[in-house]
Amino acid sequence: MDLYFVVDKVKYYVGKDHTHIRRVIDNEKPTSQRAVALAYLRNIGIEISKDKVNTHTAIREVVKILSQEEAIETSLQHKKVKRTFRHSAGFGKRIEYYIIGLMLKEGLDVYVPMVDDDGIDAIIRKEDGSYIEIQIKARSKTVVSGDAALFAALKHNENRVNHDKYYYVFYSERLDKIWILSGDEFVKEAVQNKTGKNKGKRSLWFNGKRKGVEYAKEKYDRYLSNDFKRFKLKGVKSIWLKEFINV
Q1: What does the pLDDT read at residue 85?
Q2: Which is nearest to 41 in space by CA: 66, 68, 19, 16?
């Protein structure tokens, strides 16, 4: 069996059944184009190592064929989209409901907007009848080691009406910690990007790493919270005033 036979056979099977490659990927779960090519060859009855065909050249040609047919890109992208939706967007929404559920357990009056197009995930009616807006940000336990509580490239509208009534709730799943900051505190603590594609956006890194172990930075301890009493305080805009108020 020579290289031309391998190429012709692959072209034949791709032309005969364009969806075959997706079934191969779903069944064998290859993680690279090379692995896809080898899995596809096995499924059409070709073991190139046994047939003494130049392995590198054969795989390169098979990848080229499948790529031209958009089979590899379509199938791998399909799987990538499913993982991204499930573990990124899905995680963020689940954590929003988790945090809102904790607020409700504490007796807060919480309202959830039907559309989140202004960075508002929840609205809370305080005991004095005033309202505050909440944005919830979360990091899952699957993020890269060292980034357990890194919140990067965040948009913040400094021209927002009632800026002093806007709060951030940051949650790290791996550290299992919550930080609460007002809009003013966020601007004070966050680092703003001066250049690049994220120019103007801000980042906060609540965790560090010592000897391979992540930890919550002590400098942000004032914002750590085990409850949401802060949202019940009347007229308090800054965490610095809490020590002067009898909650």
Answers
A1: 44
A2: 66
